[in-house]
Amino acid sequence: MSIETSTQTTRSAAAIAHDRVRPGVLGLFRIVVSFLFLCHGVMGFGLLGGIDGAGAAVSLGEWPGWWASLIEVVGALCVLVGFATRPAAIVLSGVMAYAYFTVHAPEALLPLQNMGEPAALYSWIFLLVAVVGPGSFALDTVRRR
Questions:
Q1: Is residue 1 part of a domain?
Q2: How many domains does the chain have?
Q3: I want to staple 65 with a disulfide (CB 3.0 to 4.6 A). Which of 6, 56, 58, 103 is the partner?
Q4: What confidence score (pLDDT) does residue 145 get?
Q5: Residue 20 maps to a domain
Q6: Burial class (CB in 10 A: 0-12, 13-18, 19+), 67
Q7: CA dist list (Å): 10 to 14, 20, 21, 25, 81
Q8: What is the extent of the structural domain holding 117?
Q9: Which DSSP string corresponds to 30-85?
């Protein structure tokens, strides 16, 4: 067996192993991120310390805070269970981009200066989920079968 053939065989084995674990890792990534985001969303309703750490909630129907919290909770639950994952992830990405540009960006240029790092990260993370799909452990996958 030549070195070139051995290298190709090794690459093929590595590619096969990668293809085997990728859906599971994507599924776990989706579940963990959406759970963390769900925790963020319920804070708007006064849970998990609320919006001020003392249990305060956004007033019912207040724009945009209450509606953003509602969209975050519903979207996070959809992504968490893998139901309509791609559309929900697109909406959540947009919600976080909106939050970044309307709340954080006017305060300072950089996310580390304007406290917008979580909003920017969630926006890009949900865009990634929308592009790569839900991975394993998703209702979308079960529905397709």
A1: no
A2: 1
A3: 58
A4: 65
A5: no
A6: middle
A7: 6, 15, 17, 22, 36
A8: 26-144
A9: HHHHHHHHHHHHHGGGT-TTBTTSSSB-PPTT-TTHHHHHHHHHHHHHHHHHTSSH
State both tokens at 132: 């790569």
CA separation for the pair 93, 125 (Å, rounded): 8
Residue 138: what residue type?
A: A
Tell me how far apart the alpha carbons of residues 108 and 71 are, in angstroms, rounded to a whole number: 26
Cα separations in angstroms, 26 against 15, 22, 62, 77, 94: 16, 6, 35, 16, 21
Q: pTM of the predicted model, to two decimals?
A: 0.86
Residue 116, both tokens: 């917008």
Specify if 14 maps to a domain: no
Per-residue pLDDT of the chain (145 residues; tens, 9 = 90+): 555 555 556 668 888 888 899 999 999 999 999 999 999 999 999 999 999 999 999 999 999 999 999 999 999 999 999 999 999 999 999 999 999 999 999 999 899 999 999 999 999 999 999 999 999 999 988 877 6
